[in-house]
Amino acid sequence: MVSNMIEIRDLSVSVEGKRILNDVNLHIGRGETIVLFGPNGSGKTSLLKTIMGIPQYTVESGCIIFRGEEITKRSIDERARLGIGIVFQNPPAVRGVRLKDMLRICMEKSGSFKEERVSKSAEKLNFADFLDRDINLGFSGGEIKRSELLQLLAQNPEFIMFDEPDSGVDLVNINLVGKVINELIEKDKREDKRTKGGLIITHAGYILDYVNVDRAYVMLNGTVSCSGNPGDILEDIRAKGYEECVRCRM
Amino acid sequence: MSNVTAKEKAKNVKEKAKNAERKPAAIGPDIDLAAYSVQAKEHEEIQRLTGLTDEVKERAVSVGIDAEETCRAGSFFQMDHSVILSSAYQSGLEVMSTTEALKKYEWLSNYWWKAVQVDADKYTAQAELQQHHGYFLRALPGARAEFPLQACLFMTREGLAQNVHNVIIAEEGSELHIITGCTTAQHVRTGLHVGVSEFYVKKNAKVTFTMIHNWAEDVAVRPRTGTIVEEGGVFMSNYICMRPVKTLQMYPAAYCVGENATVRYNTVLFAPEGSNMDVGSRVFLRAKGSRAEVVARAITKGGAIVTRGSLIGEAPGIKAHLECRGLILSERGSILAIPELDGRVSGVDMSHEAAVGKIAEEEIEYLMARGLTSDEATAAIVRGFLDVEIKGLPEHLKEEIKKAVELGEKEERLL
To answer: For residue A127, how many other CB atoms are within 10 A of its CB?
Structure first.
C-alpha cells in the first residue's frame, strides 16, 4: 500500500459566489501519477488552482491533505515550499523578470542552486536561447510549455500538477515534453524507487502516448465521477463521449 | 566671424532673455525665482575628486560619480557657483566650464542658445541673465571616448538658485559617453536648480548621456535641454530620478535634422509622497530615415507624476515608437501619461503604447507558485519593471544606472 501524497476530501469550491467544484474526492499516492480527463469547463483547471491555493478559489467545505498535513488554508508560496508544483496552461507574462533569474530563484528556494544546472536543464529542453527573455513574453504555446517545465525542473517539487501539457505543442516537441514529465515524476526510475506524485490534466489524451500513468479520473460538472484504468477510460471517452462514459461506469 | 558679430549676438540674446524674465513655463507649477538666493561663497579648486570631503563624495557617488576617476575619461565638478575641477584624461576630449569655453572659442556663440530658446520661459532667461558656469564637453572629430566623462552639479547652500548652461559637442565621427549627477549636500532642504543643456551631435557621431538626480524634499528643478542630431548621428539619453523632489519639470527636445539620425530616450522615475514630477521627451523627426524610441517607467508611492512623450514626424520614411508604463504602488499617488503622435506628412510610421495600473495579482500569484513570498514576488516584478533594457550603453554606465535604481529602492523602501 502506497502512502498518500495528496488527498482531497469532499472538496467544494466557489469563485465569486458561484459554485464550481462539488464534493470532489481523490487521492494520489507517493510514486503515483494520475490523469484527470474531462470536457472543457468541467472544473479540471479549477481543481488544480484550488490545490495550488490561488485565492480566487474559495474552499466552501472539505479539505486538502498534503503528505499528512492539512493545507487547505495555506498560502500559495507555503504550498510551493512544502513541495507542490504546477505547470500552468496559460501563465501570465512577467515583464522585466528574465527566465534565467526565475530559474535561479526556483533553485534557491529549493536549496539546489547551481549555475550549471540552469544551462543544463535549458539545453535539455532545447531552450537555452530563451534564458535572457522575459518570462513568457511573446512566447508561443509550445515555448510556454517548455518555459514552465524548465521552471519545474529548477523547482524540483514532490508533487506536480500539469495543466494540459499537450495543448499547443507540435509533434516534435510533445516527445520532449513527455520525456521531461517522465523525469519530473520519476517515471524513469524503478517503481519502488519513485517517491514523487503527479496529476496530469488532458483534454485530448495525446500526452498519454508518452507518459504512463497509474490511474485515471473523469471530471464532469465540477465533480469527479469515476476512476479506473487510463487506457480503458480514454477508449470509452473516445468511443462514446464523456456523458456516456460516466453513465456506463456509475 | 568678426568679434563685433559675436558681441552683437550676445547683446541680442541678453535682450531676448530680459523680455522673457517673467514668462511662466508652458507646463509645470510656477516658481517664484525671488524666493531663492543667487549668492554663494566661492569654493576652492581641487586637483582630483579624491580631494572631496567624505560627505560630498558620498552624495556624488549616489548620482553615479566615480570619485576615484579610474573608469572616467574626464571630470567636471561644480559646487554652487564654483567650478572646482575640470579636466580631461584622454586626448581628443575637452572638459571645461562654459564660461571658459566662451572665452576660448569665439565660434561657441554659434552654438549658444541654438538648441534651446533663450526666451522659452523665465528659467531659460534666468540661466542667461544670471549664469553660473556649467560644463563644456567636446569630442574632436573622430575622437572616441574610451570611458565616460563625468560631470557633477552640486548644491551646498540652503536656498540657493544654481543656474548652469552646458554645451556638449560631438564633432563628426566622434563618440562621447557622459554621466551627469546632480545633487545637494546632505543638509540642504530647499533650492532651485536650473540647468540648460545644448547637445550637438554631428554627422555620424554618437553621444550617450546618462543623468542621475538625487535632490532633497524641497528642491525645485527645471532642466531645459535641446539636442540637434545630424546625419547618421546617434543620441541616447537616460534619465533616472528615484529620490524625493518638490517639483521637477522638464521636457527635453531632440531634433533629427540629418538623414538616418537616431534618438533614444529612457526615463525611470520614482515619486515618493510629496514629490511632483512632470517629465517627458520630445523628438522632432525632420529628416528622412530618422528613428526615435522613447521609453518611460514611472512608479509612484504617493507622489504625482506626469509622464509625457511626443513624436513629431515631419519627413517621410521616419519610424518612431513611444512606450510609457506606470505603476501605482500605494493608495495615494497619481500617474498621468500623455503620449502624443503628431504626423505631419505621409510616409511616417509612429506608434505608442501606454499602461498605468497596479501590479497584476496574477503575476504575483504566478511567482508565488514557484515559492516566492508575496513581498518577494512584488519586489521581483517592480525590479523587473524598472529594468529598462538599454542597448548600446557602455557596461559600466549600465552598472551606474542599476546602482542608482537599487539605491533608490533601498533608501525609499520601495521594495
So the answer is: 18
Owner of C-alpha cell 460538472: A221
Mean pLDDT over B64-78 rounds to 93
- The alpha-carbon radius of gyration of chain B (Å, integer) is 21
Copy the grid coordinates of residue A182: 517522465
In the chain, the amino acid numbered B60 is A
Residue B358 Cα to chain centre, angstroms: 27
Q: How many other β-carbons are positioned within 10 Å of the β-carbon of residue A207?
A: 22
d(C-alpha B50, C-alpha B65), whole Å: 11
HSE toward the beta carbon, residue B402, CA cutoff 13 A = 10
CB B65 within 8 A of CB B212: no
Whether the per-residue pLDDT at B355 is higher than 70: the answer is yes
Q: What is the ipTM of this complex?
A: 0.95
Q: Whole-angstrom Cα distance, residue B145 to residue B188?
A: 34
Instruction: Give CA A187 to chain center in angstroms.
Output: 15
Per-residue model confidence (pLDDT) at position A1? 44
**How close does chain B come to A92, measured CA to CA in Å?**
6
CB contact under 8 A, A106 and B383: no
Dist CA B173 CA B246 (whole Å): 40
Predicted TM-score of the model (pTM): 0.87
CA-nearest residue of chain B to A148? B370
C-alpha cell at B267: 526615463
C-alpha distances (whole Å) from B282 to each of A211, B222, B233 are 57, 16, 17
Q: Which residue shows C-alpha cell 539605491?
A: B407
At residue B262's C-alpha, the angle toward residues B257 and B267, to 5°, is: 115
Note whether B145 and B93 are within 8 A (CB): yes
Give the three cell numbers for residue B304. 504625482
pLDDT digits (tens, 9 = 90+) for A142-201: 899 999 999 999 999 999 999 999 988 888 889 999 999 999 999 888 888 889 999 999
Q: How many angstroms separate the CA atoms of B172 and B267, rounded?
A: 27
Of B363, B371, B387, the CB nearest to A109: B371
Phi-psi region of A8 (alpha: psi -120 to 50; beta: other; left: phi over 0): beta
Average pLDDT over residues A2-25: 93
- With cell 498519454, the residue in question is A208
With contacts defined as CB-CB under 8 Å, which chain B residues touch A110?
Answer: 371
Residue B56: burial class (beta carbons within 10 Å; 0-12, 13-18, 19+): buried
CA B400/CA A61 separation, integer angstroms: 54
